[in-house]
Amino acid sequence: MKLFFHYSKLDRLLAALFRHTFELYLNEHPEVFHVLRTRHANANGKRLLARIKNKGEGVIVNGEVTITHPLGMVIGNNVHIGNNAYIHSRGGVVIGDNTHISRNFLLYTCNHTYQEGALPFDSGYIDKPVVIGRNVWVGMNVNVTPGVTIGEGAIIGMGVTVSKDVAPFEIIGSAPSRILKHRHQEHYRHLHDTKQFGAVNGRRLGNDQVSQFRQDARSKGSKLFFVLGTGRSGSTSITKILSQHSGVTCLHEPKFQLLRLSTLWLYGEISKEEVERELATLFLEANVYPSNFYGESDQKLVPLIPFIAEMLPEAKFVWLIRNPRDTVNSTFSRGWFTDWELGLDARERVDYPLYREVYSDYRPQADKIGLLSTNEWQGMSAFERNCWYWTYWNSQIGRFLEPLDASRHIKIKLEELASSIPDLLTFLGLAQEPIMTKISNTAENRHKLHTIDDWTPEMQSSFKKWCVANRLYY
C-alpha cells in the first residue's frame, strides 16, 4: 500500500513557526548555537580526516573545510587546519609536523590548460604539488598557488598570496609580499630538539604525547614494505589480508600524487633531482607512519623503485603478479587505454568518478615513453594496449628489483597467495599468525567482466604476442 502525504498551508505555517521560534531561542542562547555548530563541524572534520590515508596523530580540522582529493594529502603530526579552508589537492599536498594553518586558507595544486582547444581554458589540467614544511605558521586569508614550497619554520602573514617558494625560517609579510625578517634559528632548534610543540584543542602537548607521534619512512627501517603490481592484480586484496596481522598496517594507494610523478618521470618531463626532492617530501617531510610494520600497495611505485630503494635502504618489496589473462580481461573491462581515455575519441569525458579522470590522465602510454611510434600506439586496439601494459609493467618490476639484495624482494603469484602467506610473513620479519585469505572485492560488481570466451582471433593474437612469449608468468 502506498502512502501519500499532503502538506497543507497549515503544515507549512507550523514549520515556519517552529523555525522562527528555534531561531529566537538560539539568538537568546548563543552558547547552544555554539555547541550545535561545533558538533556539526567536528562531525564533518572526522568524516574528512577518515578519507585521508596518510596522516599523523593530533590532526585537527576546524569548522567547514573542503579538500577536493583527500587521497592527495599527506599530513604530519599535530597539524591544525582552520575554518573555511579550501584545498584543491588533485596535484598533491604535503604538510609537515606541527604546522598551523589559520582560517580562510586557499590552496590550489593545479591549473587549467589554456593553449589547447577551448576558451578561456579547456578541461585539461597541469598538476603542480605544494609542500608546506614542518613547524610552519600560516596566517588568515592566505592563498597558495600551484607548485609552491614553503620551507620549514616559515611564517606566512595574513592576506599573503604565496606565488613563489618560501625559504626555511622566512617570515613573509602582506602584499607586496616581502621578507620581513628571519626566525632566530638557535632558539628554533632548541624548541624543536626539546619537543616544545604547540597546543591541540587549547592544551599543550606533553612529552608522553609527543612520543606517540608517528614516524617518517626512513625511521621505519626494515619494517617498511611496498607491494608492486600492474593494478587489477590483487593489490587491494593483499592490503586487506596483511592488515589482519596484529603487527601490520597496510594501505592501498595512499599517495595520490605518485600518479603524476611516476608518469612524468617515465615521459622524461621531470628531472632526477625533481623526483628525488618530491619523494623526500612525500616519505620524509611528514611523520605519518605507525610504529608497527607498515606497507603500501601501489602500481605507480614501479618506475620509482630505484629512487625508493636508495632513499629507504632497508625497505622491502613484494612483487605481486597475476596471470595475464585475468589481468588484461579486468583492465580492459574497466576501460583502460581506450581511444576515449587516450583522447582519440571525440566524446567528452563526463560523469567521471572523482579520481578516475586523474588515473586516466596519467595512464602510461608507450609512444610518450618512447617505446613505440605514435602511429604504432594509436593503431593498436584497446585490448592490445592492455596486453602491452601487462608485459611492460611487470618487466619493469623485474628489471628494477634484480640489482637489489635478494633479502629485499620476493615474487608471489596472486593465484598462489593463500599458500604463500607463511613465506611472505617470514620475508617481512613477522610472526606467523592465522590470516583469512578469502577477501571479497566489490569493484568487480560495478563492471561487466570480459572473459576469454569473448576474445576474437585478433585479441588472441595480441595476447600471444605480448603476454605469452616473454615468459614473465608462465
TrEMBL record:
This protein's record includes keyword Transferase: yes
InterPro entries from the UniProt entry: Hexapep, Hexapep_transf_CS, Hexapeptide_acetyltransf, P-loop_NTPase, Trimer_LpxA-like_sf
CDD domains, per the entry: LbH_MAT_like
Domain of life: Bacteria
Pfam families registered for this protein in UniProt: Hexapep, Hexapep_2, Sulfotransfer_3
Keywords: Acyltransferase, Repeat, Transferase
Similarity comment text for this entry: Belongs to the transferase hexapeptide repeat family.
Protein name (Swiss-Prot/TrEMBL): Sulfotransferase
UniProt source species: Congregibacter variabilis
